[in-house]
Amino acid sequence: MSLLAASSAPTPLYAIYQAEWGFDPITTTVVFGVYAVAVLLGLLTMGKLSDHVGRRPVLLAALAAQATSMVVFATADGVSGLVMARIVQGLSTGAALGAIGAGMMDIDRPRGTITNAVVPGIGTATGALVSGLVVQFLPAPTHLVYLGLLAVFVLQAVAVALMAETVIRKPGALASLAPEIKLPRAVRRPMLVAAPVLFAVWALAGLYGSLGPSLARQLTGSGSEILGGLSLFVLAGVAAVSVLVLRKAATRTVMLTGILALIAGVALTLVSIRGSSSTGFFVGTAIAGVGFGSGFQGGIRTVMPLARPHESSGVLSLLFIVSYLGMGVPAVIAGFLVVHGGGLTATAQEYGGAVIVLAAFALLRLERGGRDGAAVLPGERVGGNA
Q1: How is domain 2-163+185-372 classified at the CATH fold level?
Q2: 3-class DSSP assignment, residue 382
Q3: Can you tell me the distance from the alpha carbon of 114 to that of 65, in angstroms, rounded to the nearest whole number?
Q4: pTM of the model
């Protein structure tokens, strides 16, 4: 959870950096997008490493790199420092995601699947809110936020060093570093159902993580620093709650709930932005949060139960690759459009419209899969049998 909290912690600080260093929204989204690209590289190259060398060594190395990135953040005196910190942070997060998720599946497969779905929401929400509170009420926020996270990572490294290993080492560690997109046969068709949903919900998270603070301030007319993280907190916090509420529902029900809530929530948000309604914006964000959490949980539950234990980290890494592609690429494009297109409001409208189209496509994939039998989702009943 701390890795995801650290990833969202800079969001409320972007306004401070912009004021001090005078960069434009493109730079903000590039700094945000660089993280997503680095996560992708980490997943592609190190996502399966823990299957060979063990979960604990990978986690220790990732935590050491995270701690290093916090030092770089705290001492940054320009955009280049932020970019460097985000690269180190992203690479280590990518390496850790597969190991953490697969480790949870090793310990308890059913609960591990749910935990993999709920942790991103809790972590992202916590990082955004706590960082916003630090910015509002405590001194030197651009240092204090990162030094606090540094202490957390050091303590976690000690805990990881003491934990038991869940994997027997096997050869092939160096070969596993070669980027490879390989899906086990059992999860290929379910992945076609899950991928559009994952891309759509994380594209929405990318909008809130990069441009959400500016939208919230514009709609409320307030300069409160807490607003810098509030919209992302609402989105991710409601997402985490929805995962817990729907954890026992059938997978298809969870997927449908996620897609429909995403469409409804984003639509209300867009209407509210056009009508300059801050209340509608946050209500729409909360509904979209249900879509975020349910869609992500549904995607994980559609695929992960079908992966064999030795495939878990690789398959989970591929799911996160789709997710972070959705989060990073559209956000960078949005930053360009804010400056060279129609501005913040128009860009948000176009971005939200694209998310709705993606969600509608995901709905079509889900319904088509149900009709032609391309994907029997885990937890569904076919012919009276689970």
Answers
A1: Growth Hormone; Chain: A; (1.20.1250)
A2: strand
A3: 27
A4: 0.82
